[in-house]
Design a protein that fits this description.
Elements: E1 17-26, E2 29-34, E3 38-43, E4 65-74, E5 79-83, H1 86-89
Parallel strand pairs: 3-5
Antiparallel strand pairs: 1-2, 1-4, 2-3, 4-5
């Protein structure tokens, strides 16, 4: 995540919804870009399926648009964690 044109990481708030785009596929998740100036990661277990299959990478290609919710921001490392889990993105309790 970088700071450009006066837009600071301080504008990001956990729980915030963002429109994001897949920037790259990682070994343990995906890297998203959002709000023009920021990047963040989605852990393997925060993808759209809570229990991803071995072929989870097939569900994501670069530049795919997704809706994500910010889980955490670490200002010291500038790391941003996001989720694509439907029950967190839609703010609903998971089905039991």
């Amino acid at each position: 995540t970088r700071e450009l044109k006066g837009i600071s990481i301080d504008v990001l708030i956990p729980g915030m919804m963002v429109n994001a785009r897949v920037q790259s596929i990682l070994e343990n998740g995906i890297m998203l870009s959002f709000l023009t100036y920021f990047t963040g990661t989605v852990d393997l277990f925060h993808l759209q399926n809570t229990f991803p299959t071995s072929r989870w990478k097939d569900d994501f290609n670069e530049n795919k648009k997704v809706n994500a919710r910010i889980l955490f921001i670490d200002p010291s490392t500038r790391a941003v964690g996001l989720t694509l889990n439907p029950h967190l993105v839609q703010n609903k309790a998971p089905h039991s």
